[in-house]
Design a protein that fits this description.
About 30% of the residues lie in helices and about 15% in strands. The protein has about 200 residues and is α+β, with helices and mostly antiparallel strands.
Length: about 200
């Protein structure tokens, strides 16, 4: 088995179920941030209160993610914002349970109400457009547990701490670190043999 810090080995075969997602998040936090501890997640009473207020039952993967890291803003809210259980809401069209917002509220993430009975349902995203009639919920992640992995990884990129202290000195001109694959498309070259 790969060590908790070996991100490529852990992610390459895929995170195939919720248990693997939680294992990955625990390993990532332990190696790159601060190990998970009691009190890092939302308690059962907090989640039950949100479910009662909303008149619905949260899917297992959404509940488990909140129980694991719901109060760890360093893993969930450095840039975009995971809503606390008392901030969860059903969108204005009554279609989606919303649990996350982009930092300027230009996008939202949620789970369709018709999918709440699934243990690990797909997650949808919606852009906040000037033309509200054009707004649509679109597929984002095939499983909620996988969305939690993405949240942790993407929010860690915006962490105030130096999570990437293993990087070499980047005195090299930035132009040398890009490769052009198509006109107008630039991809950052991952030239680190350590990963």
């Amino acid at each position: 088995m790969a060590s908790p810090c070996d991100l490529v080995s852990q992610l390459k075969p895929g995170v195939t179920d919720a248990a693997e997602a939680w294992r990955f998040i625990r390993g990532f936090a332990a190696h790159w941030v601060t190990p998970l501890a009691e009190g890092d997640g939302c308690d059962d009473a907090e989640l039950a209160c949100a479910q009662t207020r909303l008149g619905l039952t949260m899917p297992a993967a959404l509940r488990q993610g909140y129980q694991l890291i719901g109060d760890r803003q360093d893993l969930t809210s450095n840039h975009d914002r995971l809503l606390s259980p008392d901030q969860l809401y059903v969108d204005e069209r009554g279609e989606v349970l919303v649990f996350r917002h982009e930092n300027q509220r230009a996008a939202s993430w949620g789970i369709r109400l018709v999918d709440l009975d699934k243990a690990d349902p797909p997650v949808m995203t919606k852009l906040d457009l000037a033309d509200k009639a054009a707004e649509r919920w679109e597929d984002w992640m095939e499983r909620c547990s996988l969305a939690w992995v993405e949240i942790v990884l993407s929010e860690s990129l915006h962490a105030p701490e130096e999570l990437s202290d293993f990087l070499p000195d980047l005195d090299e001109p930035l132009d040398n670190r890009f490769v052009y694959t198509e006109p107008g498309v630039e991809l950052l070259v991952d030239r680190l043999a350590m990963i």
